[in-house]
Amino acid sequence: MTADYAGMAGSMQERYRLGYIGLPARCKDKCVHLGWALPIFRFLTMPQQQPALNESEAVRAASAVVNSGQSARYFDNYLDCTSSAVPAEADIIFIDGVNGMSPMVGNHRKPTEKLLRRLLSLPHQPAIVQLHWIDWCACLRSCFNEQPLRAHRHRNGSCYTAEGLRQSYEVATRREEQQDWAALARYYQLSVLSMRRAFHPLANGSGLPSAYGGSNPDDPSSLTSDGLHPKACRGSWQRCRYVLLIASLVNTFFADVMADRFGQPQPGEGEDPLPVSFKPFFTRASEHSVPIERCFGWGGTDRRVQPATIHVEGWRQSSLDTALSFDPPAWCVDGQRHQRLSAQGQASTACPKPKPGFTAFAPGSQAVFELPVSPDSHYITSSRASHVKWNATLSLEFLSSYEGMGIAVVSCDHGCECDPVTLDGHRTAATGVHADEGSSLISIWERATWAVVLHDPICAVRIVLQNRTHSGRTKFKIGSMTLRWAAAVRT
Description:
5-stranded antiparallel sheet, alpha+beta, globular, 2 domains, 13 helices, Rossmann fold
């Protein structure tokens, strides 16, 4: 759910549903990207695992895998419009990227648990598997101060020295075992898999080399493109060593479950068995109902609709995370993010990653969105005559990055009332969980939520890019907007 490492089908941040046999919906064969989700899906739906699948092709076709991940997104951001991001009929849900995203610190505790409870309460009462990803180039503060970018540490090989591997192991252990993910996993009886325990040389007893090199098959530097993301398979399973290792880890776990090697988990004393009818671990109250939501966005994995715009100046929908203009450089071809500029004799240049959204670069750029409160406008119009107002919240997901981001002001234009909100897209290095842990220079989707009072069938929201910045540039990107209902209040 939390990242784009699964591959499976389509480019990252595009939602696809892949059936047991055949191609995914909305996709031709050329857009099937190999990832660890596909071997797991095939293993779980093999006839010897599910004999009933032999009965008919219709039964086979009922199985599906859905890529719901969106890169650089906090896990608890899925509280916004959960039903548009996660299939209600899910039987198994993977949460990957937990290690890299570190969502269980500070203010993320309660919303993370709230989302877990919501997922566990879906109609099929799905199993949730935490797949702890490993950042091979995570390091302590002294290392970070010298080399702040993970990609640089990966390229110069410092991550894969004995000292580099020791630091990545220490950071990964802390994130997995000393944060609240472990406590929630025990409380809600979640399955937890760790790539650190499976693949790191300090965990598997192979010891630490002075340095890797040559064609050593145990060299972790050959697994990823930047210390974190698996190397692209380029359409061939033979090139997917890391992807297949991850799939083997998960499939071995499922094979053990099918062989009943773990036994049946028992509820703790005084606890009801799942689904989650017992009290929450962090929060004080359980969520009894999901509020009415209106979900808007510009692409991505969520099934959101684009909001209507009545005024646009300087903003444009964009699919890539370009830094200075809406369009990527001419040499950046879809699916070839590291194409070499051999004709000009220049070095290989990384092209922008896919990050769909609504973007502006020039100060003064503004847009006004009309967000429909309800398809039943007659009810709201008649209520308006009775002076009925609705308390609601508006959430806006925006890109926060360490480089080139600006400041925008969001306000209610008409049809609703709210205080103006200032959003700063610039972020400094993310603070480590522990005092001596290295920070991270990352780009991530942040979410801001504030109160709105609705009184018309349409709530118009204005966003203006400011002529001030903390980064030296003024780029701003919106990923999604969510209007959420609260109780009606008569005034």
